[in-house]
Design a protein that fits this description.
Elements: H1 6-20, E1 38-41, E2 49-52, E3 57-60, E4 65-68, E5 74-77, E6 88-94, E7 99-104, E8 109-113, E9 117-121, E10 135-141, E11 144-149, E12 152-157, E13 162-167, E14 181-185, E15 188-192, E16 196-201, E17 215-219, E18 224-229, E19 232-237, E20 240-245, E21 248-254, E22 261-265, E23 268-273, E24 276-281, E25 284-289, E26 295-298, E27 304-307, E28 314-318, E29 321-325, E30 337-338, E31 345-348, E32 365-369, E33 372-374, E34 388-394, E35 399-404, E36 409-413, E37 416-421, E38 439-444, E39 450-454, E40 461-464, E41 470-473, E42 482-487, E43 493-497, E44 502-506, E45 518-522, E46 533-538, E47 544-548, E48 551-555, E49 570-573, E50 576-579, E51 586-591, E52 597-601, E53 604-608, E54 615-619, E55 631-636, E56 642-647, E57 650-655, E58 669-671, E59 683-686, E60 693-697, E61 703-708, E62 713-716, E63 729-736, E64 743-750
Antiparallel strand pairs: 1-57, 2-3, 3-4, 4-5, 6-7, 7-8, 8-9, 10-11, 11-12, 12-13, 14-15, 15-16, 16-17, 18-19, 19-20, 20-21, 22-23, 23-24, 24-25, 26-27, 27-28, 28-29, 30-31, 31-32, 32-33, 34-35, 35-36, 36-37, 38-39, 39-40, 40-41, 42-43, 43-44, 44-45, 46-47, 47-48, 49-50, 51-52, 52-53, 53-54, ...
């Protein structure tokens, strides 16, 4: 087709489109996110903290924060909303100011005012201090918040939204002490250290940084939960609650279970221990039963909410029965590996020790698709399995596999567990001197066969055919200390060796005969920048990319068995010349639909172009919503090409602009659709053939934009070729594949 005649052709297409696909313009999936945007996938299963404001109950896990209203409507709160989004270590609500104070593990503080406005307090977080800066507890006095930290006390002005004072040298003889809890009672301030309660006068004329103003009130083991209750100091130590008033200490309550939480509000003093709630108010005591509890709060209607520390979400202790609230997400933040193809994302949440032994990580596996996250499926196939480490997708039969470092591996079909492989139904063997089956690698070849490395086995290399038959082979020189496996597009197996370097293997035409086997060892002698290899991935050009603890190598040759030399690419970036990826610690590699390479490193995530000539993107925690710079694994799903990034703080995804392409068109999807006036991101066209030419036209057939697809996707920034914004209306997408043999049409609504 002659693209110069596109305008007239499009006018004809407009009529056809209205006649044959003139249905609902807004029927496409709303689960897709715009290109270039982010989505967090945090764990909300096991909150540690909960705190009620006037309208909501807030709950926090190791890495997730959300709120629930009285009707059970949940809202996830995240970094892109303006929160600092580190691990939360303290939350406290000031009813008079209507401010929720949130403290983080890195010393950051967020003030959430009226449940809407977020003000970050960064003074302590950014202070150059060596050591643990976490916020321990929060209490209030007049217009101030007393912030207890491992470095002392911060005084946070809730009117000016700033740290007014900090007191650090408040231990004996001016020593710095860790403060676990603090409060003001009458004219004195009290702090709890590891083995003492210390006090000082509380008034504007006293310099609390003068250690001589401080004295030891009590020597007591692990005092905590300091509060002002009816002008008396109340505190807890070793499961006993005490009051202190005018030099006299009295026992209020002694428990045979740990006292896990104490708070005071308009309804009196509330004490929580497993099995029991005590409420002291106006000289009377009320008790309620409760199951396991680690933290609790009380809503304005008097109903308690609590956390158990288990995977139960936050629980409302409703008179009609307990109700659990928990947004959808993976059950844990731990991540080790993710699949990179298919319409499910399978994650291994486990890990190994530093010596590739057992970590006894019970995080399990996590599955994700358009309907959300699922895990811990009811099945005997996964019984007693832990330390999930390797995952793979078989595109031939669309099955997924997860290998463990404990007792075998499991198979998933359409999101359900359908099989288990161990010593009872496969050649997998347990280690002679232990009960474990240690798997060192997992990969799928072009025929749909599965390759598995069974460490510490004389026949360590196992092959399962698509029909289910197993074949056992030996590793070269019986070196079976494999810690990773990649199968390239030529069905060559690349083994990452714990002892250093890479073994490359091909079984030849007859897998049952070793006579035509090919083996080669690649080490620093062949150009590896380091023998400590961490990741391997082949791309669409046949290049093999090798990530190490000291940078990147690339195999660009045709045959590693005759010429096993690997290279380092030298590039110019921003006026500087150096090795591509420098000395980055490259944990994982992903190839996207545009044949670009993504690298998970300890310095964020990098994306380089198809031929490795420049860095296109470098996402860090500082310049993007990335959860942590310590990235561990990368994943991808075919239906959206959403890029999943596993970090030591959890999983986050980025909507990539390159999709998995093919020579044929799929269903043309445009999102967002409609495009609203306030939307200023990229508009994505998906379902395209690889390298297709794409033009966008109005109902008169006038072209407003043209581009080429990146894999299955193309993007438009919403502006005409002359830089102006087009008028509101229905717009049509016309695409033609690389050789002109196929065309495709789509449509969307643009609102100016």
């Amino acid at each position: 087709m002659n693209l110069n005649n596109l305008s007239e052709y499009l006018k004809q297409c407009v009529v056809i489109v209205f006649l044959f696909i003139g249905g609902n313009l807004f029927s496409q999936s709303q689960k897709l996110i715009p290109t270039g945007t982010w989505r967090t996938h945090l764990s909300y299963h096991a909150p540690k903290y909960c705190e009620s404001t006037l309208k909501y109950v807030y709950a926090a896990t190791d890495n997730g924060l959300w709120r629930t209203d009285n009707f059970g409507q949940m809202t996830i709160l995240k970094k892109t909303d303006g929160f600092l989004a580190e691990e939360i270590t303290a939350m406290k609500f000031n009813r008079q100011k209507n401010i929720l104070v949130i403290g983080y593990i890195d010393g950051g503080i967020d003030l959430l005012i009226n449940d809407q406005r977020i003000i970050p307090i960064l003074g302590f977080k950014n202070k150059p201090l060596q050591g643990n800066k976490q916020i321990n507890t929060i209490s209030f006095v007049e217009n101030d918040a007393l912030i207890s930290t491992e470095f002392g006390i911060l005084i946070l002005d809730l009117d000016k939204f700033e740290i007014r004072d900090s007191y650090t040298s408040i231990g004996e003889f001016g020593a710095q002490v860790a403060v676990k809890s603090a409060c003001v009672v009458a004219d004195s301030i009290y702090i709890a250290t590891l083995d003492k309660i210390r006090s000082a006068p509380w008034n504007a004329l006293v310099n609390l940084n003068d250690y001589q103003q401080w004295s030891t009130l009590l020597e007591i083991d692990l005092p905590k939960h300091l509060h002002n209750w009816n002008d008396s100091l109340i505190y807890e130590s070793e499961n006993t609650l005490y009051t202190y008033y005018k030099g006299v200490q009295r026992t209020t309550y002694t428990s045979d279970e740990p006292i896990v939480d104490v708070f005071i509000n308009q309804n009196g003093l509330h004490v929580f221990r497993p099995g029991l709630i005590l409420n002291y108010q106006n000289g009377s005591l009320k008790t309620e039963s409760i199951n396991l509890v680690v933290n609790a709060t009380q809503a304005p209607d008097g109903i308690y909410w609590f956390c158990t520390g288990l995977k139960t979400g936050v629980i409302k202790k409703d008179p009609n029965g307990e109700l659990s609230f928990r947004p959808n997400g993976p059950p844990n933040r731990s991540i080790f590996g993710m699949t990179q193809s298919g319409n499910w994302l399978l994650c291994a949440g486990g890990g190994v020790s530093a010596t590739f032994g057992n970590a006894f990580n019970t995080s399990g596996y996590y599955l994700y698709n358009q309907d959300g996250w699922r895990s811990e499926l009811p099945s005997n196939f996964s019984k007693n399995l832990y330390d999930y480490i390797f995952v793979a997708h078989n595109p031939i039969n669309d099955r997924y596999y997860a290998a463990t470092h404990s007792f075998g591996m499991v198979e998933f079909t359409k999101g359900n567990l359908t099989n288990r492989f161990d010593e009872t139904n496969s050649p997998l063997k347990r280690i002679d001197d232990s009960m474990f089956i240690h798997i060192g690698g997992l990969g799928i070849d072009s025929k749909g066969g599965m390759w598995v490395v069974n460490r510490n086995n004389s026949k360590a290399l196992l092959y399962r055919t698509l029909s289910g038959d197993w074949i056992s082979l030996s590793m070269r020189n019986n070196e079976n200390d494999v810690v990773g496996l990649h199968v390239d597009d030529q069905d060559r197996k690349w083994f990452i060796m714990q002892g250093g370097g890479i073994w490359v293997f091909h079984e030849g035409k007859n897998i049952n005969s070793s006579s035509d086997d090919s083996w080669v060892k690649i080490t620093q002698n062949n150009g590896l920048v380091s023998n400590q290899v961490l990741s391997i991935k082949s791309d669409q050009n046949g290049y093999v990319w090798i990530g190490t603890n000291q940078g990147l190598n690339v195999f660009t040759g045709r045959n590693p068995f005759t010429n096993p030399k690997v290279e380092r690419f030298i590039v110019e970036q921003d006026g500087a010349v150096g090795y591509l990826m420098g000395e980055e610690y490259i944990r994982d590699i992903l190839v996207d639909g545009g044949n670009r390479k993504w690298f998970a490193t300890t310095n964020g995530v990098f994306c380089i172009d198809e031929y490795g000539q420049r860095v296109i993107k470098h996402f860090t925690k500082e310049n993007s919503p990335l959860l942590s710079n310590r990235t561990i694994s990368l994943g991808q799903v075919d239906y959206s090409s959403e890029l999943f990034i596993g970090t030591d703080f959890g999983i986050i995804s980025y909507q990539n602009d390159a999709g998995k392409g093919s020579d044929a068109f799929g269903e043309i999807k445009v999102y967002p659709n409609p495009v609203y006036p306030k939307y200023d991101g990229d508009i994505t066209i998906d379902g395209l053939a690889q390298n297709s030419e794409v033009r966008i036209a109005d109902v008169q057939g006038r072209v407003v934009y043209q581009t080429k697809s990146n894999g299955s996707k193309a993007t438009w920034n919403g502006y005409r070729l002359d830089g102006t914004r087009p008028n509101s209306g229905v717009y049509f997408v016309f695409a033609i594949n690389a050789d002109g043999s196929e065309t495709a049409l789509g449509k969307f609504v643009f609102i100016q």
